[in-house]
């Protein structure tokens, strides 16, 4: 979209228009950098004072901030949510592919819906089923008998192994690998014996997966990602992980095998979560959390020691290393005090 009338944008966003509806909006920008022809938004009332110097042609805001604006405005209940929808309307991101690209290798036993596009040098193996409006970016590999639902888009160099199911209207960024073998081995007197990973990966509808994330296939049962889940870049999801609907996973998270995470959870960046545990619905794990045991109650959970100057951290580390001895000494002192108290009571 190159431009849109402010009145038309207000209508599509279900916003209340104040000011000249004929203003042409050509883009979105932050409040500090916006220029004429662009629209911005105010989602935090603490920054109202910046409205007086803002050069945007229009501002998205709440009704209580409207008196601070002299120009055009769109009044909404949630400016940040409206910003997200506005960005979708004005998105200029190109499609990952158009038509069938040069060098694409497509099995004669693959099944395509309507308006499917496959980028240059992509490989589509036998038994693959692609729904309507699926877009496969350049250099992707789609393994045997995989099914991808309508409207799903894969950017360049995504690898999807065999027997994978991906739902409708998903978005998978470049370099992601779905369905690689889980880390399964048995030890025979020092030798590692590989356990073939026989499960699949099942991904629901409206799932978004960031760049260079890996989702391993199940060992026997399937790895499952629910509807509406969003996963950031460079995450590792091991075999048989199950994630409930609408959970968000920030960048760099590592999940060990056979972990179950509930619905509407938020996992902070660089967190590490143990395998064979369960996290209930509506749990928030803050960044760099280390989750070693199951969580049975909704809420916010944190772990780790905040950054300190090295000299202070070394003292803290020394105390932690000696905590067992400190506990023994404390128990000894408590027993002596209790004994003294009993003697005086007699």
Automatic annotation (TrEMBL):
GO biological process, one term: lipid A biosynthetic process
UniProt cross-references to InterPro entries, sorted A to Z: Hexapep, Hexapep_transf_CS, LpxD, Trimer_LpxA-like_sf, UDP_GlcNAc_AcTrfase_non-rep
Molecular function as annotated in GO: N-acyltransferase activity; UDP-3-O-[(3R)-3-hydroxyacyl]-glucosamine N-acyltransferase activity
Species: Candidatus Doolittlea endobia
Catalytic residues of the enzyme: 239
Stated name of the protein: UDP-3-O-(3-hydroxymyristoyl)glucosamine N-acyltransferase
Signal peptide: none
Quaternary structure note: Homotrimer.
Function: Catalyzes the N-acylation of UDP-3-O-(hydroxytetradecanoyl)glucosamine using 3-hydroxytetradecanoyl-ACP as the acyl donor. Is involved in the biosynthesis of lipid A, a phosphorylated glycolipid that anchors the lipopolysaccharide to the outer membrane of the cell.
Reactions performed catalytically: UDP-3-O-[(3R)-3-hydroxytetradecanoyl]-alpha-D-glucosamine + (3R)-hydroxytetradecanoyl-[ACP] = UDP-2-N,3-O-bis[(3R)-3-hydroxytetradecanoyl]-alpha-D-glucosamine + holo-[ACP] + H(+); a UDP-3-O-[(3R)-3-hydroxyacyl]-alpha-D-glucosamine + a (3R)-hydroxyacyl-[ACP] = a UDP-2-N,3-O-bis[(3R)-3-hydroxyacyl]-alpha-D-glucosamine + holo-[ACP] + H(+)
Transmembrane segments annotated in the record for this chain: none
GO cellular component: membrane
EC number: 2.3.1.191
């Amino acid at each position: 979209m190159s431009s849109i009338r402010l009145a038309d944008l207000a209508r599509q966003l279900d916003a209340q228009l104040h000011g000249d509806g004929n203003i042409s909006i050509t883009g979105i920008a932050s409040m500090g950098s916006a220029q004429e022809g662009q629209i911005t938004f105010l989602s935090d009332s603490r920054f109202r004072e910046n409205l007086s110097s803002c050069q945007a042609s229009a501002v998205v805001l709440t009704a209580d901030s409207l008196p601070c604006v002299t120009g055009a405005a769109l009044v909404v209940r949630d400016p940040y949510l409206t910003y997200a929808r506005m960005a979708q309307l004005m998105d200029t991101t190109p499609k990952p592919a158009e038509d069938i690209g040069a060098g694409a290798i497509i099995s004669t036993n693959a099944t395509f819906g309507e308006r499917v596009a496959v980028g240059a040098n992509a490989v589509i193996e036998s038994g693959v089923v692609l729904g309507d409006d699926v877009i496969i970016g350049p250099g992707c590999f789609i393994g045997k008998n995989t099914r991808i639902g309508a409207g799903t888009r894969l950017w360049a160099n995504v690898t999807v192994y065999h027997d994978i199911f991906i739902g409708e209207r998903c978005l998978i960024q470049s370099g992601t690998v779905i369905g690689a073998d889980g880390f399964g081995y048995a030890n025979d007197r020092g030798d590692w014996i590989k356990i073939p990973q026989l499960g699949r990966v099942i991904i629901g509808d409206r799932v978004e997966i960031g760049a260079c994330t890996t989702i391993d296939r199940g060992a026997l049962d399937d790895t499952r990602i629910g509807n509406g889940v969003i996963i950031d870049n460079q995450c590792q999801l091991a075999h048989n992980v199950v994630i409930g609907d609408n959970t968000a996973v920030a960048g760099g998270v590592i999940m060990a095998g056979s972990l179950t995470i509930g619905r509407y959870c938020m996992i902070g960046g660089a967190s590490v979560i143990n395998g064979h545990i369960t996290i209930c619905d509506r749990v928030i794990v803050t960044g760099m959390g280390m989750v070693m045991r199951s969580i049975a109650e909704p809420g916010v959970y944190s772990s780790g020691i905040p950054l300190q100057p090295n000299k202070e951290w070394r003292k803290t580390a020394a105390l932690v290393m000696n905590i067992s001895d400190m506990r023994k000494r404390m128990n000894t002192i408590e027993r002596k005090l209790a004994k003294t108290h009993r003697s005086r009571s007699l």
